[in-house]
Design goal:
Largest sheet: 10 strands, mixed
Number of domains: 2
Structural class: alpha/beta
Bound molecules: NADP nicotinamide-adenine-dinucleotide phosphate
Length: 328
């Protein structure tokens, strides 16, 4: 067990033996990063369910990756966290709407100093987890990758840097953060960044993903068209600007040029690209709408910040989501 508490001594080297890691949710990001850590020799246990769990147990994990295909033939997988016991790190890799159920299953994994890394898109997952297990146990984080489950036991990594950024809640350097960074950096196909300001990192990603997600879902067109037509481009800029103002109201300092920088980054993405929010909503699947566009509106209301563009997108999409739920 990792005996260094979140308030414990700081290691600048992050030197480490094999780490005990539970990956809760073995889909796109859990399968990829957990698989890479297992391949690097860490003691990784996957929490999965259904046909995916059966395939992991029977055949192991197979990852097709732009950074090199690999398999973890004897992946340890279970649907019961009590079978895993205490670990050094938990990578929380479920979708935002699935968090509540897995939070309830966390206690058997937690010992003194266990760090639970939240990797959901959005800005609210760390607080949701911290309400249950305390802030000291949470490392807010974010994943930069494009990966998805490609059938039971199979993960597909299509692109993105394969990067995890994380930090302690208050950004202070600790041994457990340094050890996780060292373990990830030593794994093939992974980059780890310890953020100087993890909240700014989370909000910058939020600002980048939410507007193309919401507007993409409403219009059902990909990035190429959204960013080219003057009208939709203006809406993207307006929606990003609202998120910047909400961040400011939350005392999160984003760079002055965060909106043009995010638009420039969007301009570099494949023209046919879409977000998972867009794809899930259009397919009538459960989506992260509440944690993304919904959160902008909610936090905007709480802080007295106007979010007219995001509010329209949210109301239209909420209606659509409710309609598809009632017909499914
Ligand atoms: N994928 C990406 O490229 C990417 C990039 C950056 C950020 N993110 C963020 O990362 C988070 C995870 O996304 P993802 O794409 O990796 O999701 P995903 O592919 O749907 O993976 C989530 C996995 O967790 C499983 N799961 C959920 N609840 C469970 C439970 N109670 N017990 C066992 N397994 C459970 C799901 O199983 P079921 O299918 O049975 O529900 C699924 O296999 C999201 O917040 C997303 O926005 C994703």
């Amino acid at each position: 067990m990792n005996s260094t508490s979140s308030t414990g001594p700081t290691s600048s080297t992050g030197s480490t033996g094999p780490l005990r890691i539970a990956v809760v949710g073995a889909g796109g990001i859990g399968g990829y990063f957990g698989g890479r850590l297992a391949l690097a020799g860490h003691d990784v246990a996957f929490v999965a369910r259904g046909a995916h769990l059966e395939a992991l147990r029977r055949d192991g994990l197979a990852v097709k990756s732009v950074a090199g295909d690999f398999t973890v033939p004897s992946a340890r997988a279970t649907d019961d966290t009590a079978e895993i016991g205490e670990v050094d790190y938990v990578l929380l890799c479920v979708k935002t709407w699935q968090l509540a159920a897995v939070i309830d299953a966390l206690p058997p994994l937690l010992g003194t100093g266990t760090a639970v890394v939240t990797l959901q898109n959005g800005v609210e997952a760390p607080a949701e987890v911290a309400r249950a297990i305390g802030r000291d146990a949470v490392l807010p984080g974010t994943a930069k990758i494009i990966a998805h489950l490609d059938g039971p036991g199979r993960v597909r990594h299509l692109g993105g840097p394969g990067l995890l950024a994380f930090a302690e809640w208050d950004n202070r350097p600790t041994g457990r953060v340094a050890r996780l960074q060292a373990a990830l950096d030593a794994a093939d196909g992974v980059t780890a960044v310890v953020s100087e300001d993890i909240w700014a990192e989370l909000w910058a990603k939020f600002l980048f993903v939410v507007p193309p997600g919401g507007l993409g879902a409403v219009t059902d067109v990909p990035f190429g068209l959204l960013r080219t037509r003057p009208g939709t481009r203006q809406l993207l800029v307006a929606a990003m600007t609202e998120i910047r103002q909400v961040a400011q109201a939350m005392d999160v300092e984003l760079p002055d040029d965060v909106v043009p920088t995010s638009m420039a980054f969007l301009d570099q993405q494949p023209a046919a690209g879409t977000t998972s929010l867009h794809r899930d909503l259009v397919a009538g699947l459960p989506s992260e709408l509440e944690a993304l566009t919904g959160a902008v509106v909610r936090i905007g209301e709480r802080t007295g910040t106007a979010t007219p563009v995001n509010s329209v997108l949210y109301e239209v999409l909420r209606l659509r989501e409710e309609a598809s739920r009632s017909t499914s």
